[in-house]
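R.M. (postdoc): so does anyone remember the format we settled on? I'll just put the C-alpha cells first.
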C-alpha cells in the first residue's frame, strides 16, 4: 500500500511540474460563413509548424468562437472545416508570450456543388481496426432480430446452451453498453439483450484484449454495444416499430430522441416489447442399465421496458459535467411442463413423472452515473472522474405440482405440491478516476484508480403442502449474503515510432470478500491481490499492410449467485447448486492480426485458462437425481484462427465471409477421475447484401459450426439460413424491412455429456424460425455535433450479477 501511495504522489508531482512549466498562452478566433454569420460546431485544428502536427482539436461554440490555452512558443496556423463547406485555414502566426487573436476564418458553402455529386460508397459491415473488430449494425438487415441475435452474427461469436456469449471459443466475456459495463451476465444479460430490438444498435465492438485501463476481469475480452444516438445539432431522433411470428407473436417499438444545442446535449431512449416464445429441452439420460427420457417445455411471455436518458453540460472548452440514468424492467409469466418416461434394460416402460410449474418473475435494473471531464492541456491531456450506483432486483413466485406415474400412466399416491417465493438484490457503488498525459508528441501516459463495493442478497423460501397446510421446507429455504470490495490501480505507456507503436501496461487489483449462507451455515472469507500486465504492438509495413500483436493476463471471478450453495430444483430429477468454494480463474491470452487495406488476412488467438469455471453434473444412481454446480477445472486451452472481411464482389453485391478453425482442450480431475477432452473444429459464416434499383435491397446470411468441445460438453454441428428484403423511402429517412430467420428450422444446441457415471444427450430448441416485419423512421435536424464518448467506473462487478 505504501508503494501505491508513493506512486500516486509521484504522478501528482509530475502533473504539477507539467502544469507549472507550461506557458499560459492563449490563441482564439472565430469561424464564419461568407455572410459573416458565426458557424457553431465547426471543427478547428491547431497545427504546429514546420512538422504540420495537429496539436489540438475542438469545435466552435454558438458564437463561432474557439480558444486554445497553454500553447507552447512556436509557429502555428489554424485549420477549420465543417460538413457542407469548403475547408480553409489562417495565415501562419508566431506564439511567444502574449495572447494571439487570429483573424476570422471564412468557410464557403458548397451545398450547391453537393447536388451534383452521387455518393455510392458505404460503410462496411465489418471494419478491422488495430485493436478491435467493429460491426456496423446499421448496414445490416436486423428486422425482427433482438440484440442477442445480432451479436451472435458477429465474427467469432457463438452462443452456448444457456445463451451465454462465447468469443473465439472462450467464455468469460464482459459486455458493455455505450462504453459502460452492463453489470449483467447469465440469465439477466440474456433477458436484457433479448428485450432490446436489434434496430436500436449502431455498432458492436469486439475487443479481445482490452488495455490496462479496463478491468482485468473477462478472460475472453469485451463486447461493447453502441446504441443509436444521433450526433446532430438541434432536435432529432428516430423511431421503430415491428412485429414477428414463429409459433407465437412478438411486438416491439421504441424511440430515440436527442436535443443538442449550445452548452447542453441531452438524449432519451425508450424501447418496449411483448415477447411470447418457448424453449424445449430434451434430455436422454442413461443411468446404469435404465433409460430416462425427459422433455421440458418453457413457455415465457415477457413484457419489457428499457430506458436511458442523459445530459452533458459543457461548462467551457475544458470542463464538462454529465449525468446518465438507465434501467429496464421485464415482468414475465412462464408456464413450465416437464415429463419424464423411464425404461429398463430390456426397453420396457417402468413409469414416469410429470411436473407443472407456473411462474411469475420480474427483473429490474436501475443505474445512475455522474461524470466530470477536465482537459488539462492542448496536447490531449484529460482527467476523468466517474461515480456510479447500480441496483438489481429480481423476484420469483412459483408453484410445483409433481406427479409420479406407474407403467400405465396412473398416479401413484397424491401429488407433491411445493411453492417458492424468492427475491434477489444486488447493490453496486463505484468511483474511479482516469488521467491521460501526453509527455511529448510520441509518448503518452495513462494512469488511474478505481474502487467498488458490492452487496448481494438472495432470499429463497420454499413451502411444502402437508395435511396441516403449507409448511416451510428447511432443505430448500436459504438466505445468502455476500459483500465485496475491489480496489485497483493501473499505469500504461504508449510510445510511437515511425511505423511502430508499443503500448505496455500494468494493473493491480485487490479483492476483499465475505459471505454467509443460513441454509448451509457456510462462511466465505476472501482476501487476495494480483498483477495483470498487458502489451500491444502495432507495425505498419507500408500504407496497406498492418501487423498487430497483443498479450493480456486476466481474471474471471465467480458470479455472486454461483457462490450461493443453495440447491434449486427445476424438476424432480434436475437441480442447480452454487459452490461457495469457487476460486477465480486466470488466463494468459495472445493474439496476432495481419491485414491488407483493412482486409483481415489472418487472425491467430491462443489462450490458456487455469481454474476456469464450468458446470459439473453429479448424478445419484439411486435417487436418479442430477445436480449441476460450477467448479474450477484445472486447465482449458483454446486456439483460434480466422480469415475474411467484407468486400464488394460487384457494385451491387457486398459479401462478408469468415472462415475459422479452432482447437479446444479441457484437462482436469472431475469427481476424482481424470478428464481429457479435445477436438479440432471449424466454421464458416457468410453475409450477403444485394443492392437493387429504387432503394431496394436483399440479404442472405448463413453459417455452419462443426462439432466442438466446450468445457465438459461435446457439442454437435449446427447451421442456419436467414433471408430478407429492405426498402428505403421518404428521402431515405424511412425503412421497411422483411426478414425470415432460420428458414429450415435447423438452429438448436445439441451436445453429449459423458464422464464417470454421466451419460446424457442434450438438445435445446427455441423459436428460431420467425417471420419479422419492421419499420424505422428518422427525423429532425441533420447538422453534426460531436458527442462525448465515456466509460463509467462500474466494472466487472455488474457483469457477475446472476452469472452461473
Amino acid at each position: 500500500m505504501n508503494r501505491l501511495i508513493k506512486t500516486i504522489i509521484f504522478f501528482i508531482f509530475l502533473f504539477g511540474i507539467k502544469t507549472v512549466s507550461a506557458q499560459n498562452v492563449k490563441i482564439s478566433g472565430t469561424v464564419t460563413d461568407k455572410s459573416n454569420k458565426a458557424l457553431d460546431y465547426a471543427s478547428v485544428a491547431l497545427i504546429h509548424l514546420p512538422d504540420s502536427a495537429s496539436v489540438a482539436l475542438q469545435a466552435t461554440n454558438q458564437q463561432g468562437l474557439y480558444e486554445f490555452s497553454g500553447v507552447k512558443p512556436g509557429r502555428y496556423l489554424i485549420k477549420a472545416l465543417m460538413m457542407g463547406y469548403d475547408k480553409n485555414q489562417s495565415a501562419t502566426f508566431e506564439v511567444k508570450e502574449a495572447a494571439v487573436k487570429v483573424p476570422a476564418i471564412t468557410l464557403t458553402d458548397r451545398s450547391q456543388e453537393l447536388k451534383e455529386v452521387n455518393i455510392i460508397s458505404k460503410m462496411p459491415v465489418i471494419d478491422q481496426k488495430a485493436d478491435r473488430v467493429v460491426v456496423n449494425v446499421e448496414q445490416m438487415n436486423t428486422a425482427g432480430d433482438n440484440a442477442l441475435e445480432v451479436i451472435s452474427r458477429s465474427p467469432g461469436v457463438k452462443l452456448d446452451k444457456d445463451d451465454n456469449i462465447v468469443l473465439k471459443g472462450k467464455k468469460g466475456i464482459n459486455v458493455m453498453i455505450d462504453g459502460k459495463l452492463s453489470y449483467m451476465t447469465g440469465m439477466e444479460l440474456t433477458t436484457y439483450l433479448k428485450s432490446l430490438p436489434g434496430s436500436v444498435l449502431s455498432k458492436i465492438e469486439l475487443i479481445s484484449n482490452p488495455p490496462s485501463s479496463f478491468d482485468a476481469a473477462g478472460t475472453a475480452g469485451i463486447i461493447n454495444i453502441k446504441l443509436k444516438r444521433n450526433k446532430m445539432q438541434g432536435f432529432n431522433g428516430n423511431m421503430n416499430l415491428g412485429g414477428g411470428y414463429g409459433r407465437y407473436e412478438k411486438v416491439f417499438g421504441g424511440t430515440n430522441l436527442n436535443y443538442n444545442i449550445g452548452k447542453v446535449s441531452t438524449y432519451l431512449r425508450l424501447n418496449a416489447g411483448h415477447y411470447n416464445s418457448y424453449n424445449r429441452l430434451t434430455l436422454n439420460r442413461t443411468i446404469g442399465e435404465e433409460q430416462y427420457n425427459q422433455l421440458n417445455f418453457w413457455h415465457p411471455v415477457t413484457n419489457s421496458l428499457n430506458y436511458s436518458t442523459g445530459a452533458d453540460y459543457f461548462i467551457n472548452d475544458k470542463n464538462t459535467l454529465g449525468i446518465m440514468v438507465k434501467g429496464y424492467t421485464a415482468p414475465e409469466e412462464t408456464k413450465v411442463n416437464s415429463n419424464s418416461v423411464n425404461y429398463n434394460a430390456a426397453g420396457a416402460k417402468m413409469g414416469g413423472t410429470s411436473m407443472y410449474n407456473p411462474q411469475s418473475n420480474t427483473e429490474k435494473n436501475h443505474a445512475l452515473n455522474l461524470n466530470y471531464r477536465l482537459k488539462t492541456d492542448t496536447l490531449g491531456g484529460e482527467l476523468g472522474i466517474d461515480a456510479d450506483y447500480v441496483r438489481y432486483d429480481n423476484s420469483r413466485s412459483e408453484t410445483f405440482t409433481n406427479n409420479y406415474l406407474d407403467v400405465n400412466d396412473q398416479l401413484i399416491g397424491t401429488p407433491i405440491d411445493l411453492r417458492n417465493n424468492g427475491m434477489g438484490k444486488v447493490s453496486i457503488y463505484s468511483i474511479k478516476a482516469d488521467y491521460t498525459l501526453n509527455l511529448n508528441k510520441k509518448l503518452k501516459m495513462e494512469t488511474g484508480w478505481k474502487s467498488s463495493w458490492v452487496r448481494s442478497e438472495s432470499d429463497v423460501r420454499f413451502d411444502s403442502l402437508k395435511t396441516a397446510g403449507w409448511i416451510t421446507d428447511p432443505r430448500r429455504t436459504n438466505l445468502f449474503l455476500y459483500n465485496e470490495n475491489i480496489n485497483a490501480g493501473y499505469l500504461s505507456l504508449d510510445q510511437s515510432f515511425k511505423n511502430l507503436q508499443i503500448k505496455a501496461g500494468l494493473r493491480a487489483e485487490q479483492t476483499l470478500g465475505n459471505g454467509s449462507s443460513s441454509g448451509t451455515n457456510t462462511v466465505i472469507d476472501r482476501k487476495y491481490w494480483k498483477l495483470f500486465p498487458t502489451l500491444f504492438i502495432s507495425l505498419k509495413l507500408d500504407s496497406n499492410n498492418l501487423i498487430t500483436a497483443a498479450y493480456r493476463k486476466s481474471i474471471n471471478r465467480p458470479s455472486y449467485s454461483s457462490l450461493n450453495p443453495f440447491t434449486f430444483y427445476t424438476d424432480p430429477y434436475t437441480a442447480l447448486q452454487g459452490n461457495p468454494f469457487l476460486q477465480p480463474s486466470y488466463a494468459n491470452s495472445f493474439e496476432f492480426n495481419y491485414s491488407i487495406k483493412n482486409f483481415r488476412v489472418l487472425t491467430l488467438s491462443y489462450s490458456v485458462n487455469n481454474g476456469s469455471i464450468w458446470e459439473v453434473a453429479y448424478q445419484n444412481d439411486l435417487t436418479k437425481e442430477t445436480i449441476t454446480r460450477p467448479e474450477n477445472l484445472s486447465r482449458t486451452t483454446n486456439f483460434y484462427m480466422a480469415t475474411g472481411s467484407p468486400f464488394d464482389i460487384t457494385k451491387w453485391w457486398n459479401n462478408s465471409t469468415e472462415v475459422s478453425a479452432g482447437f479446444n482442450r479441457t484437462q482436469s480431475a472431475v469427481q476424482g477421475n481424470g478428464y481429457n477432452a479435445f477436438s479440432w473444429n471449424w466454421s464458416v459464416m457468410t453475409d450477403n447484401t444485394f443492392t437493387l434499383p429504387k432503394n431496394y435491397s436483399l440479404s442472405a446470411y448463413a453459417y455452419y459450426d462443426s462439432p466442438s468441445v466446450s468445457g465438459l460438453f461435446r457439442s454437435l454441428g449446427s447451421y442456419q439460413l436467414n433471408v430478407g428484403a429492405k426498402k428505403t423511402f421518404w428521402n431515405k429517412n424511412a425503412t421497411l424491412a422483411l426478414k425470415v430467420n432460420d428458414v429450415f428450422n435447423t438452429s438448436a444446441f445439441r451436445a453429449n455429456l459423458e464422464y464417470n457415471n454421466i451419460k446424457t444427450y442434450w438438445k435445446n430448441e427455441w423459436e428460431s424460425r420467425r417471420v419479422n416485419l419492421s419499420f424505422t423512421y428518422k427525423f429532425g435536424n441533420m447538422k453534426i455535433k460531436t458527442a462525448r464518448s465515456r466509460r463509467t467506473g462500474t466494472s466487472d462487478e455488474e457483469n457477475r450479477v446472476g452469472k452461473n
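R.M.: ...and that's the designed sequence above, right after the C-alpha cells. Also worth knowing: The chain is about 5% helix and 65% strand. Residues 445 and 493 are 5 Å apart (CA to CA).
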